[in-house]
Amino acid sequence: MNQIIYSKWVFEDDDIRSAQIYRATSLIADSLEPNTLNATVRCSDSSILEFEQDTRLTYVHSTDLPAYFYIQDITRTGPDEYAISAMSAIGRLIHGEQHYGGIYTGQTVGQVIPEICGPVPCVVKTNLQDVQIYGWLPIASRRDNLAQVLFAVGAWIRDDLDGVLHIERLWDGYTANITQAQIYQGPSMSYGAKVTQVVVTEHQYVQGGEEVTLFEGQSQQGDIITFSEPAYNLRASGFSILESNANYAKITAGNGTLIGSAYIHNTRQVSADVSQAAEPNVVTVSDATLVSLVNSSDVAQRLAQYYACLATFDGDILPGQQLDGNVVGIYDPFDRQMVQACLKSLDIKISGTLKATVSALVGFKPPQVDDSQTLDERIVLTGSGTYQIPAGTTLIRYVLISGAQGGHCGQKGGDVGTSPSVSWSDPTWGDQYRGCGLADGGVGGEGGAPGAGARILEGTLDISDIASIPYSCGLGGLGAAYDPDDPDGAAGSDTELGAATTAGAQAPEDGYTDPITGEKYGGIGDQGIPGGKGAGKAAEVTTVDDETVQLFDPAESVTDEDGNTWSGGLTETEADAPDRVAMEMRENDGARIWYSRGLGAGAAAGANGSGPGPEASVSVRSSSIVATAASGLDGATPALTPKKPAQYGKGGRGGYGGGGASSGGLAIGSTDSSDYTVSITAGTGGLGGNGGPGGPGGDGCIILYISRAIPQESGPLVTSDAKWFLDKHGRRFIT
User: Fold this and answer.
1) pLDDT band for position 591 (50/70/90)?
2) CB proximity list for 269: less than 8 A, separation 6 or greater
């Protein structure tokens, strides 16, 4: 008996003109194809056309348990004839709301899959619940993003009879035998070309990219702005962000700009050999963005296992309880023997006696949890010693990080020469003023250039026939001592693990970001901190006169890497005008002179700037004034060396810059009689302080990612008397 039940209608054998059920499972879990039911039924009630999409339909064959489908379309094909098209619960994930994806940094399968499935009920098997996911999902249909997750973790969907999606591994045990008597005439056995290698691209998304404009313009309340590439650190002006993730932002009404920062997308290829052939035939998978360092080897091995199977059985059979994805024994009509195969699809023609067209991959055995090579353990080695390989280890990926280069030395601060001559006339009284003004303060010496980061080598450790392996982590190189020629800091030493070494490896500027912890290793060091500028003429002064001659910019302070501040040298100022150099005056009957002390010098890390400077030399005589303006001061020389970075493999910080020298003091004279003279010799500025030594580079380390086999017993549960344990519907419990 066949029965189709939809809403108030029940169609039985005579009412079912034709019907077909198609079931399929991708054996590499790279796609999700819904099961379909297509039937033509006889019905005298045209209101059957008033259907709602995804209304449930039930199909029952004989005494089998019911199977549930969801209406997609009903078409009238005759006066009392209607074609019904329905899909299994997977089909409900194709249409409707899309899934907004995002960046995944270790969320578990048990968290992610229910969120993707949304309104469609699902159950994730216990041994998959805690598997962690890393990478990115785009904005796509719920079905497509779910397929990405399943491919990454090696899981499949099994449609339960009540429409619930069960996420689990395929069972590798035999479920049935398809004997010669069950096979109709005309089967075939096709053979694919040998695949020699599988190449899988692993993906990593790291913060640190450039700032990007994601949207600019006018928006309505609730507008959703989607991004072509993932972004983080979203900021809005002119409107507000209501909700967001790496792929989109929902915003309020307004007119403005949405900006964010791009992720850096790193990729690496992992390969697995499949077979030997005269000509290479390589299968590549590059767009599975949840394949990461953690699972790339496991994905590659699963694909290699699949592509090693070349024979496919296609034919019509008399079906029993077989389901797609089941392992069966099937009769090979050409070699006349039973072979193991895994069912890829069944196209079942519904009638009094069912007939199914099947496709089965010969020799394929679905991988199990204990076959997995997921890298779910991590250890960081430092120093040197012998690493004992844990029992049960099946795979080790390593990242060797050498010692980093030391930083360059800091640069010398700027010197200040002889103070400039200045002169002007008083616009009211016509008095003439001449002498030496303030020079520009010496610039602070630039901080030294950073050292290069560690040389980094990634690879897979050959653990066959070894129980332990020696290792040695490189040391960071010393920073360069001060030298006007600015030499490089010393290179760090190499890191070694057995025969693997960082010698000759590249030193990427961005270093290496651990996909599991997000910690950064290696990478170029920090720029050195500059010295402070020495005090000198105010930058705003373009014309020197009564109002501007005393204006100055003070010596700059320096804050070191620990947050300690070292003060610039003091300059004496007018009590009521702190932006003006303090002046003294001397005179006789026909001449006057105004003068100041030298100004304060720039600071450097670990050393305050000197100041105030020395006094001017002034001699007042009966008919003249003779003066030598005060000299400036030398800039400070750093007393500190940057610390070794705490980050393994990070380049040394550049050395601290020297302080800038200060200007000499003012000396301005005036006379109102030809019988009196004022003679002024300009002061000389100071010399800039030398730069400090560069900081040492960070020490190296080794990161190991480890996969260990965890024995699992799978298969149908049995009772104490070795019978299958069944639920209330007569179904086997399988673990």
Assistant:
1) confident
2) 199, 200, 201, 202
Closest CA to 227 of 137, 97, 142: 137
Cα angle 574-537-434, degrees, rounded to a multiple of 5: 85
Among all chains, which residue has been given the structure tokens 């373009």? 542
Q: Cα–Cα distance between 328 and 175 in angstroms, integer?
A: 6
Please check the confidence at residue 224 and state whether its pLDDT lies above 70: yes
Rounded Cα gap, residues 292 and 591, in angstroms: 84
Q: Is the peptide bond before 612 cis (omega within 30 degrees of 0)?
A: yes
Residue 707: its H or E element: strand 701-708
State yes or no: pLDDT of 720 exceeds 70.
Answer: no
Contact 540/525 with Cβ under 8 angstroms? no
Q: For strand 624-628 and strand 677-681, is the pairing parallel, antiparallel, or unpaired?
A: parallel
Residue 712 and residue 369 in contact, taking contact as beta carbons nearer than 8 Å = yes
**Contact present, 532 and 660 (Cβ < 8 Å):** yes
As to burial, measured by CB atoms within 10 angstroms (0-12 exposed, 13-18 middle, 19+ buried), residue 499 is exposed
**Mean pLDDT comparison of 121-130, 327-336, 564-573, highest-scoring range:** 564-573
Which stretch of 87-91, 248-252, 356-360, 451-455 has the lowest confidence by average pLDDT? 87-91
Contact 679, 627 (CB under 8 A): yes
Pairing of strands 701-708, 377-381: antiparallel
pLDDT classification of 376: cutoffs 50, 70, 90: confident
User: Alpha-carbon distance 155 to 126, whole Å?
Assistant: 12
- Boundaries of every domain in the chain: 2-93, 102-168, 171-191+312-366, 193-309, 377-407+449-526+698-708
Please compute the mean of the pLDDT values over residues 641-665 and round it to a whole number. Answer: 98
Q: What phi and psi values does residue 298 have, to the nearest 5 degrees?
A: -65, -45
Choices 3.30.70.3290, 3.55.50.30, 2.40.50.100, 3.30.160.20: CATH for 102-168: 3.55.50.30
Q: Are 294 and 705 in contact (CB under 8 A)?
A: yes
CA dist 675 to 273, 624, 679, Å?
Answer: 104, 9, 13
**pTM (2 decimals)?**
0.82
Token readout for 393 is: 């280890």
Cβ distance 389 to 463 under 8 Å?
Answer: yes
Is residue 138 within 8 Å of residue 102, measured between CB atoms?
Answer: no
What is the pLDDT confidence band of residue 459, given thresholds at 50, 70 and 90? very high
**Given the structure tokens 């395929």, which residue do they identify?**
170
Are the CB atoms for 567 and 608 separated by under 8 Å? yes
Which stretches of 656-704 are DSSP H helices?
none
Q: What is the mean pLDDT of the chain?
A: 92
pLDDT at 721 over 60: no
